[in-house]
Design a protein that fits this description.
The protein has 187 residues and is an all-alpha fold. The protein has 10 helices and no strands. Helices cover 76% and strands 0% of the residues. The radius of gyration is 16 Å and the shape is globular.
Length: 187
């Protein structure tokens, strides 16, 4: 049942990424969502986090802003609401829904929050890793979504990567140090 639910959630999120209303374009699926999922799988044991919870949370962490651009600014607030709707529909147990929602609520680098769970810390680190590893997707966001010029976009992306770096736990920084330094050198 869990695998079926996970597959269905993956389909729903990918469909939302492919929708014309998604302001980020389909590439958010391949260059961000799937990378965050991959990173949570890599990090779950380091954080002693439940792999099922972090994988579901990774699939859904940006779903609210993908589904509705008006939710972008506060997608860490709207994300748990959207996750609740989907997970409840699939009969996901209440305590697991709460764990997924908590992880989503605390994943943003630009919003300082205390991680209340290993899953929340794991997702936040996986998300930050993806920003560092996928700098081209941030450039796309700066230039195409935000309409920034070259210099403004470069400064914005550099600041986002630096915020993401600060969010990483030290042992996770070691995993992406080369990519972080390369991204900063490029920017």
């Amino acid at each position: 049942m869990i695998e079926t639910m996970r597959n269905r959630i993956e389909e729903i999120v990918e469909q939302a990424c492919a929708a014309d209303t998604n302001i980020f374009g389909y590439d958010i699926w391949t260059h961000h969502i799937l990378k965050v999922v991959e990173n949570t799988k890599q990090l779950a044991s380091r954080f002693d986090a439940d792999p099922e919870i972090v994988e579901i949370a990774a699939l859904l962490h940006d779903y609210a802003s993908i589904k509705d651009k008006a939710l972008y600014a506060d997608h860490h607030i709207h994300g748990p609401i959207e996750a609740e709707k989907l997970l409840k529909r699939f009969g996901y147990r209440k305590e697991k829904r709460e764990a997924v929602k908590n992880a989503i609520a605390t994943h943003r680098a630009s919003v300082r929050v205390e991680h209340r769970s290993a899953e929340g810390a794991c997702l936040a680190n996986a998300d930050a890793m993806s920003h560092i590893e996928q700098a081209p997707s941030l450039l796309y966001l700066a230039y195409m979504h935000h309409g920034m010029g070259i210099d403004e976009g470069r400064v914005w992306v550099k600041a986002k990567i630096q915020r993401s770096w600060q969010k990483l736990r030290e042992d996770v920084q070691d995993l992406v140090r080369d990519k972080y330094e390369a991204a900063l050198k490029t920017l």
